[in-house]
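To the wet lab folks,

You asked to see what we're planning to order before we commit. Fair enough. Below is the target structure as tokens, and below that is the sequence we designed to fit it. If anything looks off to you, flag it before the synthesis order goes out.
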């Protein structure tokens, strides 16, 4: 399951990853916060869309990522 950069505000075009709360290989539960992102005006949490294992992080802390782009992959249990 792809984890995508959310749109935190009406005009948001990209977001910066501030923190990953989980590491590759760790278990995640649906709804659990796995990352913190920031737009020009807002800071928000990204929750796991499914329960499983975080198998890949595609963007590092500090990277700016367009809204809708995949930032991580979770393998469902």
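Sequence we intend to order:
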């Amino acid at each position: 399951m792809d984890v995508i950069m959310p749109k935190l505000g009406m005009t948001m075009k990209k977001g910066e990853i501030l923190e990953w709360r989980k590491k590759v290989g760790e278990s995640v539960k649906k709804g659990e916060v796995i990352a913190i992102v920031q737009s020009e005006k807002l800071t928000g949490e990204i929750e796991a869309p499914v329960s499983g294992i975080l198998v890949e992080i595609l963007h590092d802390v500090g990277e700016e990522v367009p809204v809708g782009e995949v930032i991580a992959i979770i393998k469902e249990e």
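Structural context that might help your review: Residues 2-76 form a domain with the OB fold (Dihydrolipoamide Acetyltransferase, E2P) fold (CATH 2.40.50.100). The two ends are 11 Å apart (CA to CA).

Thanks,
Computational group
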